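Key idea: predict the complex, not the pieces.
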Amino acid sequence: MTRLICPFCGPRHLREFEFHKTVAAEGGSAFARVYERVDSAELSIEHWQHVGGCRGWLLVRRNPSTGAVTDCQLVGGGEPA
Amino acid sequence: MSIATPRYSAWSLLRARFAGDGYWRPLWTGRRLQSSYDVVVVGAGGHGLATAYHLARDHGLRVAVLEKRLVGYGNVGRNTTIVRSNYLLPENHYFYEDSLRRWETLSRDLNYNVMYSPRGVVDLALSDDDLAGMARRGNAMRLAGIDCELLDLGALERFCPELEPRRERRFPIVGALVQRRGGTVRHDAVAWGYARAASALGVDIIEDCEVTGVHSTGSVATGVETSRGRVRAERILFATAGHTGLIGRMLGVPLPVETHLLQAMVSEPIKPFLHTVVVYVFPGHGETYICQSDRGGLVMGGHLDGFPSYTREGRWDRLEEVVEGAVELFPSVGGVRILRQWAGTNDMTMDGSPIIDRLRYDNVYVNAGWCYGGFKAIPASGAACATLVATGTAPDLIRGFRLSRFATGHLLDERGGGPFPVRL
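Result:
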């Protein structure tokens, strides 16, 4: 995994992006959202930010065992203007 | 089919010299998996083996260590071999100091040379703020009776002349915190030494045996399901740091753990020039810690890769950053080539401190969340965790590492960074 494809900026080097955290399950407690993490060897759903570019918040789906990125969208599912 | 492990001594080495190949035996024996044990330890890394050793030695229990792959395949063989106890928070520095004291005598205790080398660990300060933070940490340690010294430039120059602390640089050095008893330990020897000593006490070390589930009746676990069949156990310990998130998933318990990669690298061997461990955190971005192995290679590491991963590969730009730091510190190594690079999977907890506690069942325990500090913790963790598993009560030394601290707010956030493993 050496790059992410930002919906605004296109393919950019990984060092422009910052991982924030894995996305918490719906309906969990505040404690769970702050402290607990969803760990999976096959599919990780994560919030990232393109800090070195458009600064957009991204929803990324990856396989943490291979590094393959299956999806990279804006959080909330909006389209780039 | 136990093979007697010979006791090593100067005399035994001399005998081996004349006895030829016939003298040397396997360090631990390939035993058959039995159907039932007092304790099943999952994971034959440093913590699992050390705990098994203490369970057998101090508590007289029948123990099996089940390992998915090979003894020492995980993080005990992937770290940068540094041991130290220079922590700010009492729960951490008392625990790691207990560990450092055990490192000092471990070769004798295990009758196996783990090559503890108290060459000192130097944290470099690049600003007055750095120095103030180090003074605070150093004072906390000295109040606890732990050795450490704050060095000005002159003292740093005397301790580590190869650093040339007064040389003009992009980020000038203003001082340092040194713990002289800190240093390095041969990491593979730790796994081998504990495996040998545990095996000699009757612990069954079973490689290529993956645990896939836990059997239970109500709130009591009765055994584990493995790739080699079912094993009954009175108590179960998961010592699988690097994969504890997946263990939590298997048991249906969400944990405050995220799995990140930390990479390390070693250069081709060069003549001895660096006699201590130097930790260099440079403003804004990177970190490099560097020491020279007995074989002459420069062993280096830095920050986490920064996102969850099980690939054990490591990102290239992090390697570049670590090497940049090393060359900035020691311009003379600029022409030295990197020989190998690797990565380990780290249990990163949401306050940066470990978890040693019961997990879900009355008789299931977890030894996890070692972040990037697991190697140096092995001897203390093994002894304390064995007491917890054998008696059901956590010794004072690890009471702060309980899992419930996240819910009750008693976090051990050494870094003061909040519930995120990655520095933002």
